[in-house]
Every structure is written in C-alpha cells, then in structure tokens.
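Margin note from the TA: students keep mixing up input and output lines. Inputs are the sequences; the output is the structure of the whole complex. Example:
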Amino acid sequence: MAESNTSNNVLKVIDLNIGYKNKSITENIDFTLKQGELMAVIGVNGIGKSTLLRTMANAQEALSGNIEVDDKSLISYTPRELSSKLSVVLTEPLASKNLSVIELVALGRQPYTNWVGTLTTTDKKKIKEALNMLDLEPLQHKKCYELSDGQLQRVMIARALAQDTSIILLDEPTTHLDLFHKVQILKLLRSIAHNTKKTIVFTSHEIEMAIQICDQILLLNGKDNPFGRPQDLIKKQAFERIFPDDVVTFDATTGTFRIKK
Amino acid sequence: MNSFQTYRWHFLVLIIALVCSFLLNISLGSVGIPLSETLSSVFGDSVQNSSWDYIIWNYRIPKALTAILAGSALALSGLLMQTLFRNPLAGPFVLGISSGASLGAALLIMGSGLFTGLFSFTLLNDVALAVAASLGSFLVLLAVVVVASRVKDTMALLIIGLMFGSVTGALVSVLSYFTKAEKLQQFVYWSFGSVGNLSWPQLTLLLGIVLVGIILSILSIKSLNTLLLGENYAQSLGIHLKKSRYLIIIATGLLAGSVTALAGPIAFVGLAVPHLTRQIFHTTDHRILVPAVLVYGAILLLLCDTIAQLPQSENVLPINAITSIFGAPVVIWLLLRKKRMVF
C-alpha cells in the first residue's frame, strides 16, 4: 500500500463508501492508479460499478472516504478545473444525434475555449489527433445518427481524448457491441493508456477480456473489493467467488469461466 | 467546427429577404399604397397623399416592427427550450408562459365582472391587459423557477411546466363558463394574437425586454452547444448546470413572456422556426442557430402578418390562424422529406 508516494499517483481512492442518501451500496473501496494504467471495474449487476464511476466523476457525492485526483481532493476542484483533469464516456444516449462526428469531438475542447466556444489552432490540432488515433478521419463529416454502435463508441472516446485530461472514465464501453468490436475498443483503450500516458478506468462485464488486457482490476464483490494486477488476483483466488459455484467456476490456468453442466 | 464565415452568404440572403418582407408588409394592407410611395415615406421623402404617410408611420411600421420582434423572440425562445429539454416538440410555451399570460388576461377581462368595484371599466384598456398578462406569465415562470431549483431532472421540469399550463388552462375555463358573452369575446380576441395594437412606447418596451433576452441567450451559446450531448456530459465539460438552466429559463421567460403579454399567444412560430432553420442550415451549432432563428422568425411572422391583413380587403384574419395554417404543413413536408426527426 505505502510502497510509493511518488507524484505519478494520478487517482487515489481511500476507504470509499458509495451509495445514495445514507443507503450505502458498496463500501471499503481502496485503490491507487498511476499514470498510463488501464483499470477495469468488474462485478455483478447492481454492485455499484456505475455508482463508483459517477462518484469518481463528482456527479454524485461519496457517503464517506476520499478520492484524490493528482494528490488533491476531488471535491476541492471547481467543475471547470475538474473538466480539464477528468473526462467521461457514459452509457446514456446522446441528446442530439444531429451533430457531425467532428462537431461532437470538438465539443471535447469546451473546457479550453472562450465564452462562445471558438476553436484555436491548438484545439483544432487536438481534435485532429483524437480523430486520427481512433481512425475516424474518414467518418468526420458524417452525422452521428448515421453511425453504427461501434463507430459511435469510438467517436465518444475520441471526444474524451480531445478533452485532454489525465483521467478518462468509461461506463460499460463495450455493451451492445459484438465480440470483434468489444476487443477493438478494449485494445484501443489499452493503447491510448500506454501511448498517451492517460489513466483509464472502465466498468465492464467482460471479466475474461479484462484479465487479458488490463493493467489493474478492481473487483467489486460487496465485501473486501480486491484490487490488483490480474495475475495477482487470480493467485488470490479472487475470481472464484464472484458467481455461485454451482453455475460457473473459474479456471485459474486459462483465466476463463466454465459453465457447470 | 462550422464557422460563421461558412454561412455568410446564407445570412446575406436572409437579411435581404428580411428587408424585402418588411417593405412588402408595410406596402400592403386594406389601403393600397404603391411601393414607390411607401419607400419615399420610409426614407423621409414627400408623399403624394399625407394620409398615406400617417398610415405608414403610425400604423404599419409599428406593426411590422412588432412582427419582427415577436417572430424573433418566439423563435429564439423555442430554440432555447428545444435544446434545454432535448425535445423537438418543445416550444416557447412549454413552461406554462402562455397559459400564465392567458390567466392574467382572463382574470382582468372576465374576472372584472366577478369582482366589480375592484376594477373599473376604464381600466380595461390595452395597457392594463398587457400588465395583467405579463404578471400572469411572470408568476407562472416564477413558480417554475422555484420548482426548477428543487428538481434535478430537466424532464421532470418539462412535465411540471405542462401541469402548470393545465391548471391555469382549467382556471381560464372556469372563468369563461361564468362570463357574459361579450367579455368572453374580448378574451377570445386577445387569445387570437395580434401584432397590430402596439403604440411606439409599448414597442420600445418590447424592444428593451427582447434585447435583454437575446443577450442572455448569446451568453448561453456555449452551454447550449454542450447541452446537445446531454446534461451529464455538459457537467463533465465544466458547465455549471444549474446556472445555465436558470439563464436559459429566464431568457425564455423574457422573450416569450413579453411578446405574449403585448401581442397575445402567437402559436407555432416558436416550435417551427428552429426546425426549419436546422433543416436549411444543416447544423446544430448554436453560434449559427441563434442569429439564424432570429432572422427566420422575423421573416416568417412578417409574411404571416402580410397574409393575415388580406391586402385590399377590410378584413383582418387572426394571426394565429395564419401561422398555423401555413406553417404546420411546411414543417410536416420538411420532416417527411428528410425521413428522420433530427434535432
């Protein structure tokens, strides 16, 4: 735990208790992420994955405990300051799908633009980089309603990337996608984290993929919520207890789940 | 990404169209005045018939300017509401502004019979009517703002606005039921809407309020654009959600409330113009949409008013009838052509 207190701890969560109005959903959440790490938050439905994400984005208050972004308490940031530290990709549908891809990605630059939202040369460069990184240049003038789910998810990630924050939070970025596009998105997240040194946290049901692709995993189980590198969690037998034994079992050698017949 | 420059030809054409509609509007009416004479009068030259000069300056120009202000203000408030509520069916009146104004007007016109002694009949002029209507819409708006500070969800706010509208509508029905026919008629005339009854001082007042509304809207452009992503995204982009919401609601109240108070509830313009503008300009960027709906709204209401005065005849149709009869099919056609309800 106290192995390092160097300043590249980008996101630190200490003894966090999340929920709504005195009704706790999950407590004892502890983890620390460094620059450029990719972490998956996994757990069964209703365990509080999205609630944790919303709490980290300061969209709702924590019941107790602390979240530190760049060694400073999350709640001490103004919305404007936080918007240049932390960006989000949510599950909610876009309010207007009549935006073109490039317009939507450009909205990621809002925290840096003037009162009416004029884009500077730097803004345009960042937008181009984001489109480039997610292979969206051929699509940039399409309207969002013309895109497939997988393409739209890439656009939303590009928007978060254009926001140029040290942390990106994504709520279930792979839901509604087929296997190929799931893998595509997760590999993209991994390369973004490692190449741009951004810290990326996403919630997911894809435990097997998370084990293969993530640097760190936070397993919400409602009790001790183990956190660590995937191989360490496997060693600690953390995955065995997620689902009832008589339905699925975890195979530690392959890192996969087997259906009990 | 679309800068203003991309659209400068659009705007040039629009401004020319606006000037043409303005001149058309003031040259047509129950008294036929040749266009050349109208132009001379507007530019201060001598006119053959001095009564024409009088008609143009004291009747037609105030009316045309009212149409411009009302059209612009209603169209802009419709745009604000559609973006704030992420609902293509929202218009300037979803927050109960027009029903509040109706209640104010109804209480003055029809309630005066019920509370004789409180109101004398001499009070019942246009100014009193405007004051009552603005008081009504202001009170309903105030109630909505108080509720808005309590609810987190904008959708709930939309429904609450509609409920306020229903309640005030019901109160108006009750009043109408107990009212004599001639008072009822007076109220019905008010509810038809009219841009023709404003004096120069009233027009100046309207201009002042509408300008404040436009300035507040311009200050909201950035948050309006961000709201296209949804409220949670807007918040994550550093937008102060509550403050932006108040600003947008107050702007709408000023724009739609002042117009309704002085010219009656004019239907359709606020709902339709933002749609037409989005279809023609192919953008959702409010830096373009805000100025564009102002001009489109003005042109549309000027043309509707031109038709409503039935040139060369002595009759004038209610402007509400014209805005709906000509406007609604145009919007339906535009949406069918695009095969998709985008906003």
